[in-house]
Design brief:
63 residues, mainly alpha, 2 helices, DUF2524 domain-containing protein
């Protein structure tokens, strides 16, 4: 899993990183009541997804 995203991120990894991040986010969203920690993790995943989409010029989905 990608945890250290920065301006040096290699977009060649986006095809594997994005599906993994989206799957993790979907898994958290489909769970029952969210704790504060789960909400923080969801926010972190959403930010990583947006970062990769923006950096690599990938059209945004509804995630």
């Amino acid at each position: 899993m990608t945890t250290d995203l920065n301006s040096n991120y290699d977009c060649a990894n986006a095809s594997s990183d994005l599906p993994d991040l989206i799957a993790q986010l979907d898994s958290l969203r489909s769970g029952s009541a969210s704790s504060a920690e789960q909400q923080e993790e969801m926010n972190r995943l959403e930010n990583q997804i947006r970062f990769i989409q923006n950096k690599c010029d990938i059209p945004h989905s509804d995630h």
